[in-house]
Design brief:
CATH superfamily of the largest domain in chain B: 2-enoyl-CoA Hydratase, Chain A, domain 1
Largest sheet of chain B: 7 strands, mixed
Radius of gyration of chain B: 25 Å
CATH topology of the largest domain in chain B: 2-enoyl-CoA Hydratase, Chain A, domain 1
Number of domains of chain B: 2
Number of strands of chain A: 13
Radius of gyration of chain A: 22 Å
Strand content of chain A: over 45%
Strand order of the largest sheet of chain A: 1-2-3-4-5-6-9-11-12-13
Distance between the termini of chain A: 52 Å
Structural class of chain A: mainly beta
Strand order of the largest sheet of chain B: 3-4-5-6-9-10-14
Number of helices of chain B: 11
Order of helices and strands of chain B: HHHHHEEHEEEHEHEEEHEEEEEHH
Number of helices of chain A: 1
CATH superfamily of chain A: OPCA outer membrane adhesin/invasin
Largest interface: A-B, 57 and 57 residues
Helix content of chain A: under 10%
Number of strands of chain B: 14
CATH topology of chain A: Lipocalin
Oligomer: heterodimer
CATH architecture of chain A: Beta Barrel
Number of domains of chain A: 1
Largest sheet of chain A: 10 strands, antiparallel, barrel
Structural class of chain B: alpha/beta
Helix content of chain B: 25-40%
Order of helices and strands of chain A: HEEEEEEEEEEEEE
Distance between the termini of chain B: 100 Å
Chain lengths: ~300, ~325
């Protein structure tokens, strides 16, 4: 009951955030002007340290051990670095999380511990396809390595399962700056500072994956005396077919006067591995809040 | 306005992505679906249809017509487990919130173990308990007696060192694992290493690698390798077994058979030489199935029980006179 309420709140927050991201630019922004652009020149650079907290609505179904969908919240922390210029954008961000999910069985539910980590890096170049100074379209290589491990002690020798997936992607990122230029309010004629926000949408289109997960029969107490975990599966390389991965992020960045930024983000990371048996599906729908501390004080560093 | 439209499209795309990754939930309480799922999991994963001489399609034909939508949960549980009982495998279980069902392998033979008989007639008041081992000396301190009741009880290096050092000057050791239902395979190798004189192949294992009846992984060979600070290899070792020995204890028996100073005495073990994994049904119940098979270096598959080198059973007349027939036979063998 408690979990359902939490998931309902999470879903509600997600809808509100997504709606805000989509509607905010049109509702509050002034007509696009250089005053509300993040970058005033090609040399402008923003070097950021990101520290974030998030919670994801995590769903997983590993048919190697259960036909049920396990669902629950996963708490997550983010840490990384973003080097952002008008002509290119580089980032490396690590994420780690833990949570308890429970099965969808109507008769009996068993808790499952979920541990999640990822390393996401990309180097994106401005395509210069968008001529408007408030819009930027970046594209470039993106690499996302994700590990999901699960512990469900009710499953005896199959209690520990996992999936490790590294995806080489073509990253596409669309950014839009909006806000208020400095001036005075119409009402009471109060002095107003410049405010800049950036809405961004990034979609990482997979090109190639490397992955590892347990073999057909999942077992962690095998009988050869050499390894307590057996049937762990080989490292496999694939492009399309065995894996479907959808990875995207919607972000809203608020630029503070001191150069730091606040970030609200909705992220979707879904992985489906189908090797012809034991289909594995994991979905993280993540809502996070991040502090982005500006590391460079000189705008043109 | 265009941005709003694009945004709503993006929202729709994001919310629809989940359906591509994760299709409809398979949770159901439907009796027929759960029965079919369980039967299919067994068909695809179970490792011993040949050695159990079970035609799984015939089993389906017998039990499937008995499934009714209006069955009670207890009745349905019993029907499912009646089907699983056809495998006669102690590693096959069905677990629901209201019941845990298992095949009672130990009832397929005489018990051949009487704890009170040993306590009253063989153990002195000075018998010792070191870690998981209960031990004492017999026959004027010429024979060591070691009782290990469960491979679930972890063996620390100190425990086994102390016991074996205590008996290093005896003519032999009786290692009594009767009615030991098994446990951790790690403990099995720890104990085995203290009796191994050199690296010896003891068995090979394969794990199911696909749904086909003969889809198994490559063979992995297991060895008994000397380990720890002290090995008991000079004196005779008698391993006492009965039908209550199962799983890790049967693996241990197979391993000890390969050692030259060891004699296995008693009754055929309960078997259980297939390691089980676990799974869940669409209604949330849990099950276990044997998914590996084990072959001795001689090519034997002892899933139905590891035979002793010498058959000995408890004699009812001996019991009345306070004698454990198997311990007496073991002492005679060691002192001979």
């Amino acid at each position: 009951m408690h979990q359902s309420r939490h998931l309902f709140i999470l879903r509600l927050l997600t809808i509100i955030l997504l709606s805000a991201m989509i509607l905010l630019p049109d509702l509050i922004a002034s007509p696009s002007s250089p005053d509300t652009s993040v970058f005033q020149s090609e040399k402008d650079k923003i070097d950021l340290l990101i520290v974030g907290l998030g919670v994801s609505d995590h769903k997983v179904r590993d048919e190697g051990v259960s036909p049920l969908t396990y669902r629950g919240p996963v708490l997550q922390i983010d840490f990384g670095n973003i080097d952002w210029k008008k002509k290119r954008r580089w980032q490396i961000i690590g994420k780690g999380g833990v949570g308890i999910t429970s099965g969808s069985g109507t008769i009996q539910q068993y808790g499952q511990y979920n541990f999640y980590f990822s390393l996401h890096t990309n180097y994106l170049l401005n395509t210069n396809l968008l001529k408007n100074h408030s819009w930027r379209l970046y594209a470039g290589p993106d690499f996302n390595f994700t590990g999901n491990t699960r512990l469900n002690q009710n499953l005896f020798n199959a209690s520990f399962t996992y999936d490790f997936v590294g995806s080489l992607n073509a990253g596409v990122r669309l950014e839009y700056d909006f806000g208020w230029p400095a001036g005075r309010t119409r009402f009471l004629n109060i002095k107003r500072r410049q405010r800049i926000l950036t809405a961004a949408f990034q979609w990482n289109i997979p090109v190639m994956h490397i992955f590892q997960r347990p073999e057909y029969a999942v077992i962690d107490d095998f009988t050869d005396g050499n390894s307590l975990y057996s049937g762990q599966g080989d490292l496999k390389l694939t492009s399309y077919g065995q894996i479907i991965r959808i990875n995207m992020e919607l972000s809203l960045l608020y630029h503070l006067q001191n150069g730091n930024l606040l970030q609200f983000q909705y992220g979707f990371d879904g992985i489906r591995i189908d090797e012809g048996y034991n289909i594995l599906s994991t979905v993280h729908r993540r809502l996070s809040f991040g502090f982005l501390f500006r590391l460079n004080h000189n705008r043109h560093e | 306005m265009n941005k709003i439209i694009y945004g709503l499209i993006a929202l729709f795309v994001v919310s629809g992505c989940q359906k591509i990754i994760l299709d409809e939930d398979q949770a159901t309480g439907d009796k027929a679906e759960n029965f079919d799922y369980l039967w299919q999991q067994c068909r695809d994963r179970y490792a011993f249809f040949d050695i159990k001489n079970v035609d799984w399609d015939e089993v389906y034909a017998e039990y499937r017509p008995q499934v009714r939508p209006d069955m009670g949960e207890v009745e349905f549980f019993d029907l499912c487990f009646d089907m699983l009982l056809e495998l006669r495998d102690g590693h096959v279980n069905l677990i629901s919130p209201f019941n845990v069902a298992k095949y009672e392998f130990e009832l397929t033979g005489a018990e051949n173990y009487n704890r009170r008989l040993i306590r009253d007639n063989y153990l002195s008041d000075k018998h010792m308990i070191t870690g998981p081992f209960l031990h004492d000396t017999l026959a004027n301190q010429q024979v060591g007696y070691v009782r290990y009741a469960s491979f679930s009880n972890n063996i620390a290096a100190f425990d086994i060192d102390f016991v074996l050092q205590r008996f290093k000057n005896t003519k032999g050791i009786i290692l009594d694992v009767r009615s030991n239902p098994g446990g951790s395979i790690g403990n099995m190798f720890t104990l085995l290493s203290r009796f191994a004189d050199e690296k010896r192949e003891i068995y090979s294992s394969q794990i199911k690698s696909g749904p086909g009846p003969n889809q198994f992984s490559e063979v992995q060979t297991a060895y008994a390798t000397p380990g720890g600070s002290f090995q008991y290899t000079d004196g005779k070792v008698v391993l006492l077994v009965n039908r209550g020995c199962y799983s890790a204890t049967s693996f241990f028996t197979v391993g000890m058979r390969a050692l030259p100073q060891v004699l296995v005495m008693g009754d055929t073990t309960g078997g259980g030489l297939g390691a089980p994994n676990g799974g869940q049904l669409p209604n949330g119940w849990l099950y276990r199935l044997s998914v590996t098979r084990t072959i001795t270096p001689e090519g034997d598959n002892f899933e139905n029980g590891v035979p002793p080198d010498v058959y000995v059973a408890l004699d009812s007349v001996d019991i009345v006179s306070g004698r454990d027939t198997m311990i007496e036979a073991a002492v005679d063998y060691i002192l001979d």
